[in-house]
Structure formats: C-alpha cells, structure tokens
Amino acid sequence: MPEETPAEGLQLRSLVRADQVLEVFLETVTVPEPGPDEVLVRVEAAPVNPSDLGLLFGGADLTAAVVTGSAERPVLTAPIPDAAMRPLAGRVGAPMPVGNEGAGLVVAAGSSAAAQALAGKTVAVAGGAMYSQYRLVNAAACLQLPDGTPAIDGASSFINPMTVLGMVETMRMEGHTALVHTAAASNLGQMLGRLCAGEQIPLVNIVRKQADEELLRSAGAGYVCNSAAPEFAGQLTDALRETGATLAFDAVGGGSLASQILTCMEAAVSSRSASYSRYGSAVHKQVYIYGSLDRGPTQLTRTYGMAWGIGGWLLTPFLQKIGPAEVARLRSKVAAGLATTFASSYAGQLSLAGALQPDAIARYGRMATGSKFVIVPTLGPDSGRGECR
Amino acid sequence: MPEETPAEGLQLRSLVRADQVLEVFLETVTVPEPGPDEVLVRVEAAPVNPSDLGLLFGGADLTAAVVTGSAERPVLTAPIPDAAMRPLAGRVGAPMPVGNEGAGLVVAAGSSAAAQALAGKTVAVAGGAMYSQYRLVNAAACLQLPDGTPAIDGASSFINPMTVLGMVETMRMEGHTALVHTAAASNLGQMLGRLCAGEQIPLVNIVRKQADEELLRSAGAGYVCNSAAPEFAGQLTDALRETGATLAFDAVGGGSLASQILTCMEAAVSSRSASYSRYGSAVHKQVYIYGSLDRGPTQLTRTYGMAWGIGGWLLTPFLQKIGPAEVARLRSKVAAGLATTFASSYAGQLSLAGALQPDAIARYGRMATGSKFVIVPTLGPDSGRGECR
Q: Distance of CA A294 to CAs A56, B93, B96, B319, B377, Å?
C-alpha cells in the first residue's frame, strides 16, 4: 500500500436505535489492504441519489433533527415516527454505511492483472458504502473512466444511467414502443429524455411545475404534461394517443397519478377502437413504480378495463434478470456517453461532515428538481459549495 | 330445421340509453338456420355469473328499478348514475345480448360432420347471448356433455372451471407453488378448493364472514382466514409462511385487501430471511384482481418492498395466451370432472321474464355466497324456483 494512504479513514454511518432515534455519524474505520482481485479507491465524489435517502434517514422526522459533536465529527439525531419504525425493524442497532455509487482514484491494487491494470486510474463504482474516504472493491466492479475524466464526472455512472437504460430495455422486452415518465425534470428524467431522443423513442414527460415544464421544453422535449394543470387529463390522453405509449415509469408512487396515467392510456387506446368491450381494451397498460416521492398510498380507480398492471421496479433485480453479458453491453454504452447522454449535474458539493448539517439536508433531502448534491469525502468539514454545475 | 323449432324466439337484451337509463327487455328474434359448421342450441340453462352482471346492469341503480310491460314481456328500467355512465359510452344506444355461457339441446345441425355429430346431443357453450331461447353457434365451440347429463349440470362448464384451471396454470407459469384466493366461499372458490386439493396445491382461502369460514372448513379447507377478524393479519401471515404462497387471485378489487395480502406475504417471506434490505425482500409477490365485488378504489400502501405487482386478470386473454392445444387440454379436464371437481350449484332457477323481476334481481344481483342463479329459457314467465341444489 502506498505510503500516503492513512491507516484509518472516515465512513458515514446511519443507525436506527431501538428508542426510535436515528443517529447519523462519522465512524473511524481501518483502511483495509486489497486482496489479489481488489483495489482500494480513495472516494472523491459520491452523489446523493433519492435511492440513498431512505437508508440514510430511514423515515426520521428531519424537521426535529439536532446536531451535536464537533465540526469534524458531527452527530445528527432525529426522532423516528411510529409509522416509520416497522419497516426498519431489520436494521435496529446495526450502524449501516451509505452511498450507492461514486468515483475516485485507485490508490492501492491487489496482485491480479485486473487489479494492477487499475492502479492510479480513476474509476466509478457502485458498491455501497461510498460515503467513505476509502473503499475497498473488487476490480471487476470498477468502471474505468477515460483518462483525464475528473472523478466528479463519473460519480453517477451507474444508478441513473443504468436505470434509464433499464427502462428502455424493459420497454422493449415487454413489447411497448414508447414511454411515459413522471417527475420528468429530475436528473434521471433529463437523462432519459436524452437517451430516448437519441434512440428515437417517443417519451411523454409528466411534471407538476410550470418551471419544470419550461425546462424540459427548452431542452427539446416533444411531450410535456403538467399534472397540476386543469387540462392535464386531456393533454396526457392526446400525447398517449400520438405516441402509443402503454408503459410508464413512475417516481412518485403515492396518490392517484399512476391510476390517472392508466385511465388516460385506456382512453387513448379506446379512441382508436370502434367496438365496445365491457372488459375494456385488450391492450396491456403497465405502470412501474420505481420511486416514492409521495410515500402515501397509491389509489387505483380500476377504470381501465382488465388489461393493466402496476408493480415495483428496481434496478438490481432487473440487471440480474438480463444477465452479465447484457449488463456489460449497457455499461459500455454508459462509458461512451458519460460526457453527453449520461452526464449528471449537481447543485453543490458537500464534505462528509457537511452532509450532516441540517441546512444542507434541507436542500438535498427534498428531492426537488435541481437539488441533487454530491458528497466529496476529500473536502474538509468546512468546505462545500453550491451550484457547482 | 326440425318442425318443432319455432321461427322466432326470445332473447334478453340490455340497453344503455343516452338519457342515462338502463333498459332490460326481451326481444323477439328470428331463429336462424345453421350454416354447414353450425348448430342451433335450444338453451336450457344459463348461469348468472358475476361476469354477466356488469353487461346486464351496467352500473345502474337497481334500488330505483321499475318494471313495466306484461308478465310475458316485462321491461326493466333503472337510472344510471353519472359516474357509471363514462365507461358505458361505447354501448349507448346498442341493445346488447347477455349471458356468457350455458347449455342446451342441439335441435338443428349444419351439413358438416362435426355439426352432424352433435345433432340431438346436449352441449355446453360459452358463446355470449346465452340468455336466449335459441342460440346459433359453431360446432367447434361446443363441449358435448356425457350422455344423460342434464343441461343444467353442464351450464357452468366454461367460466368457473376454466377460470380456476387458469389460476392454477398462471401459478405454475409464473413460478409460484401455492395460491391465495379471496371471496373464497363462492361457487368458484369452492371449485378452486376442490381443484387444489386434487392437485396437492396449498390454498389460502380468505372470506369475510364466519358462516363462510365454517362452510369452507367443513368442506375440508386447510387454511381459511377471515378478513373481518381482528387477528386476520397474523393468521394470514402464518398461513402464507406455511404455504409459501406468493400469488393471490382477488375477486374483491376495491379497498385495502389486495395491499394487506401483499403486506402479509412480505412479512411471511421476511420472517424466513435474516438480513435486512431497505428495498424489502427480493421475492416477487403478485395479486391479480379478477373480480370487482367492491367497485371502490384499490388502496396500496406499498409497504412490501419493490418486488410486487398487481394487475387485472381475465380469462379470455389468458386462454389466447396459452393457445388452442393447451385450452383443449384444460377443456378435457373440465369434461371429465363436471360431476365432481367442476360441479356447480344454484340457489334457484329463473325464466327469462323472471330474471327481470326486482325481487329476483335483489337475490342474484348481490353476488353473495349461495346466491348463484341459473336462467332456464324453457320455463314459462311465472315459473322459477329457489334452492334447486
């Protein structure tokens, strides 16, 4: 191991205590030596994805959060409401590392050829526990970034890019030819827009704010429907009729949006059919819920015949289903498009300690358009800045 | 055509009028002559299935129904609430024949060998428009009943038997090994119970009345859970853990029952797993809604991870999916088990005119256990009796 690597490093941990208190803190952990097939990555950038927030905060009431400890080693505590505790039963008492993905420099490499080939390279990793100063990973799990690419440009190489590719692959595998996407102005939504534009896939974007509508239109989106507008149902039905979209990916989850989409899909399909069927159209209409911006219950009116489905969609099982060869093909598409189709942008950078400050949490925790942050574990506790790109 | 066949016969029709009134009446229709491959069936028994009621009454308010006309030719009218009109737009002004299935005597047959072979035989048919005195159908669509079988014993040869067989086939095709069924004391539910018992498939029955619970237990059901009981969630979870059931067929549709089933499935699966995953278990949990006893919205709490799905399930598309050879195999299973596994029972018989009387509708329209009726078009208007078997 090179001399410059310290013996210990900081790792962010999230603990659900039995007394219904969430505790997020920085733990000092030993920096391990790589085995033959492993590399040690000095993490330089790890995004805060919506998929990280659940593990990080576990449904705690962050408006009641308190920070104690020092500037270097803050400890955030927040009460967990009764309703949020039940699904957390499995993790009570076990401090969990957080951070699904990130990128950094390989500062030590095992003896195998694959590991040695990565020595000194900047790599992207989706290994979990990336909110750490150092992270030991298998060489095969690394995506080597093109020479000269800063780690921050590769920090979001997995989750969003593979998710949008997974949506398009799911569309093809299940026989659909166009897509609907909600919360469409998100980083992920904009990425999906670029991917669909490049592959000539009609995409119906659903947003709920005028500003997001304008953002997507100015980026060239062909179909943008605002769910807060009074004419939403009619506009969406028109867009669905024109695109023929019968598959939606929904980041919202709760409320009636998924059901509204199915209702409009059925209206669009029925408008092209002359005959009446008491069971509705025979065209299968599907919504996959992949996020939970609204944690409330999903309401289904079932006013769309019998050929419909709703379900959860998650990246990891999807990748397991398609198998390693197909995953490798998708990863190479990501590597080739990191600066274009699959580029991410961040509202600001945070140090590990800075990520525990309530004012920062108030910004990155709300999962609104343009509020995606990246944690930079090499920054000191007082560093961090907004609007970096 | 034999001399005894009249030139005209009665056919029940359901009309949704543009003024939001449902009109159900008996139409005089010409009795057609069979083409080469066709047979003319004198309908002797046609059940009132839940799947018939939607077409028959179209969501009209039957508590405000009025009957005019004569005893031989009654006309039922009832107002249709605003909310119920929208899905009926496609059938306004078109009087529709009703009756998905039934059985009767072949009184005339076309020239083909297949048609001639059925002359004088009692056959079961799923052709629609079975609430008619005579029905012309393709010979290939007929299921010839064993000699001596009364038509009433074969009247329900298609929908319920093929539905329960379809549920079991769906279970196998989608990789499940046990089933959950709601409204389990229905004719269909008891049939599914006999089928599962014969094929050694664990079945978890969900009912909502003590009497139905006892009925199923006395019939030998191993797992019966009462959704109205305070200990429902715990009992259901136990049953799911013991059976390993991860697929449910739900006849209720509205409310929170489907979501409760998914919640208990997740609890049962998680109880066998030691590790915590913030996305819930990786085991896919599925509910298919095939009925709509509760027409209200379906509420999903989404407290069961990401590996779940819910959707509509309908017999006809399922049969199209599995293809003719597989359908033929299932039909032969039905024919062999008509007196045993696939036997139906009825609370009473109704003439065509009798089916339009409010007191009869009040009984067969409520879709409760033990209230299944059969229409016997050969009965005179004043005939009809209850508790026939």
A: 17, 42, 43, 38, 54
The secondary element (H helix, E strand) that includes residue A322 is: helix A315-322
Total Cβ atoms within 10 A of residue A182: 27
Q: Write phi, then psi, for A139 (nearest 5 degrees).
A: -60, -35
Question: How far is Cα B281 from Cα A342, in angstroms, rounded to an integer?
Answer: 30
Cβ within 8 Å, pair A303-B278: no
Q: How far is CA B333 from CA A275, B41, B340, B370, in A?
A: 33, 23, 11, 25
Q: What is the block-wise mean pLDDT of chain B (389 residues), using blocks of 10 residues?
A: 78 96 96 96 94 89 93 94 85 94 97 97 94 96 89 94 97 98 94 97 97 95 97 97 98 97 95 73 95 93 95 94 93 90 92 93 78 90 56
3-state SS class at B87: helix
ipTM score assigned to the predicted complex: 0.85
B57 contacts chain A (CB < 8 A)? no
A156: exposed, middle or buried (C-beta count within 10 Å: 0-12, 13-18, 19+)?
Answer: buried
A54 shares contact with chain B (CB less than 8 Å): yes
| CA–CA separation, A285 and A306 (whole Å) | 9
Put simply, the answer to whether A311 touches B308 (Cβ < 8 Å) is yes
DSSP β-bridge partners for residue A77: A23, A66
Burial of residue A180 (number of CB atoms within 10 Å: 0-12, 13-18, 19+): buried
Q: How many CB pairs under 8 A join A and B?
A: 95
